[in-house]
């Protein structure tokens, strides 16, 4: 028997999409995605939304088999023969990296201001 929820999970994993990212794309919680992946049969509206978010047809979700995985990934939304690159990243990781960069920048700015104050104090004490 086909388990559509498990098929969604396998396709998502093969495409390198985390539950959180899929949830954001669909306007759902990560827990809701987890629950969907446990369902044996998905309703038509849910199948439509998931297939759109994953970039695969509903039939692929319904009839997915691991041996078809290479075909899905290699033909996912690419209808020409041009080379394509798909980048997958966790937006939270990127956000944390940006915070760290801002922290370093702030520390450098603060150090520069301290040096200016010290220089001004030296000039005033002469």
UniProtKB/TrEMBL annotation:
Gene3D superfamilies: lambda repressor-like DNA-binding domains. It comes from the Bacteria. The keyword Coiled coil applies. Residues 8-61 form the HTH cro/C1-type domain. The keyword Magnesium does not apply. Keywords: Coiled coil. SUPFAM superfamilies: lambda repressor-like DNA-binding domains (SSF47413). Residues 96-123 form a coiled coil. SMART domains: HTH_XRE (SM00530). InterPro entries: Cro/C1-type_HTH, Lambda_DNA-bd_dom_sf. This is Helix-turn-helix transcriptional regulator. The lineage of its organism: Bacteria, Pseudomonadati, Bacteroidota, Cytophagia, Cytophagales.
């Amino acid at each position: 028997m086909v388990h559509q929820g498990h098929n969604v999970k396998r396709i998502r994993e093969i495409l390198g999409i985390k539950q959180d990212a899929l949830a954001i794309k669909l306007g759902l919680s990560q827990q809701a995605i987890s629950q969907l992946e446990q369902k044996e049969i998905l309703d038509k509206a849910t199948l439509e939304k998931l297939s759109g978010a994953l970039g695969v047809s509903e039939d692929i979700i319904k009839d997915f088999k691991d041996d078809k995985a290479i075909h899905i990934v290699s033909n996912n939304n690419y209808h020409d023969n041009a080379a394509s690159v798909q980048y997958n990243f966790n937006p939270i990781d990127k956000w944390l990296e940006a915070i760290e960069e801002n922290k370093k920048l702030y520390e450098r700015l603060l150090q520069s201001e301290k040096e200016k104050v010290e220089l001004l104090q030296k000039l005033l004490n002469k």
